[in-house]
Amino acid sequence: MDALDSLLHGFGTALTPVNLLWAACGVLLGTAIGVLPGIGPAMAVALLLPVTYGLDPVAAFIMFAGIYYGAMFGGSTTSILLNTPGESAAVVAAMEGNPMAKAGRGAQALAAAAVGHFAGGLIGTVLLVALAPMVADLAVDIGAPDYFALMVLAFIAVTSVLGSSRVRGLASLLVGLTIGLVGLDQMTGQQRLTFGFLQLADGVDVVIVAVGLFAIGEALWVAARLRRGAADPIPVGRPWLGRADLRRTWKAWLRGPFIGFPFGAIPAGGAEIPTFLSYVTEKRLSKHPDEWGKGAIEGVAGPESAASASAAGTLVSMLTLGLPTTAVAAVMLAAFQQYGIQPGPLLFEREPDLVWGLIASLFVGMVLLLALNLPLAPLWARLLRIPRPYLYAGIMFFAAVGAYAVGGEVIDLVILLVIGLVGFGMRRYGLPVLPAVIGVILGPAAEQQLRRALQISDGSATGLVNTPFAVTVYALIVLLLVWPLVGRLAGRGDRRRSRTTGGSAPGA
């Protein structure tokens, strides 16, 4: 009851005209910046930190909340329409959203993403209010073996459901893991795959990898195919979701938050894992398996809802433990410290107006995001009417700007082009792109958690399965690997029985 009273007081803070204005500005700025390839929520919040120096802390963090959610939706917009994710959490949206856009259903994909963000953010924030202490206790108890098991689950899940074969999915994952090895070993300090270039000692930024594989690779692929003939403009389609779309998406909207929120709350790496797992879940449960890879709307609705709920979940450990689990949370932690505020267990007692005003602003930001972006879905979809040469030239320009903005080094542009050529080659030989991005994002963290778990157990492999949580995750992995084989064997048995029945019938 105290939490509800505090939340109502927070709404009194967030719903003042001035704070509403800052929330709306944050949503609009976040969406506009998120649309630019390579510039995600973390960079948007970091770039706008100086702008908030003159604001009081409550107004500043209300604006940051709007920027966060707006930038997430902006990244999904370019991911769906242009196959160019603005951030790693929007990678999965391209898998089904971009085929929908190419089929003239870009507005419907954007509407599904907008409602998914609203539903995920709404449910995730309710869970934040209700379950923050319990989830914080769970986060403290999770160790290195559990982290590694979660990441192995993400690797297996994404390679088993994408691409024309598991072998190609695994090959793509190995490409990403190799790119993730570039830089200094985090434990020994030795250089790996840097080829003598000091600029590579810090590794290859995941934004450059994602933009290179998706944006540059897609642009080169389209350019290579356009030489054979100009493509017709892609139709925009009607702007709203029909009854059939709603029947297929409402369950995905409701399932996504319960996948995304726990992963956002525990220190497991933000929205990447839950969006992939939500995609896998929706594909397994879908009644339209033939549409996956060609534009299944559930593949947009579920992951986007999970991503938004994960964003709410990251605030649990950041506010209650002072532990940032994503880049955005790290930037917001720096912003807290800029105002002389230290997140932790006592934050709710010392700064109740700030904390509950921030939480209430998440609800306000969700409503503003839906109100501002749902009517704009047809307008965003009209980007597809731009002639292909101009459109992809613009994509390459903004991709280069985004990659250069990451570190301000010319070598980043060279790396972007090289990775773009890798992305082009992967499309040419039928390798799915998503497992490679997964490998880059989670590979270094998985290696670090593996080595920590083995150090704790003095090199014994049993240290990887010495917790109930890890054993449960590995059981899920085995089920994920075995279930398709069981289905195939069952199918073969049915075919054999039908042949036997059919063969004996004439002689009966």
TrEMBL record:
Source species, domain of life: Bacteria
Protein keywords: Membrane, Transmembrane, Transmembrane helix
Listed transmembrane segments: 20-39, 109-135, 147-163, 170-187, 207-224, 315-336, 356-379, 391-424, 469-490
One Pfam family this sequence matches: TctA
InterPro entries, per database record: DUF112_TM (IPR002823)
DUF112 domain sequence ranges: 20-437
Name the record gives this protein: Tripartite tricarboxylate transporter TctA
Lineage: Bacteria, Bacillati, Actinomycetota, Actinomycetes, Kitasatosporales
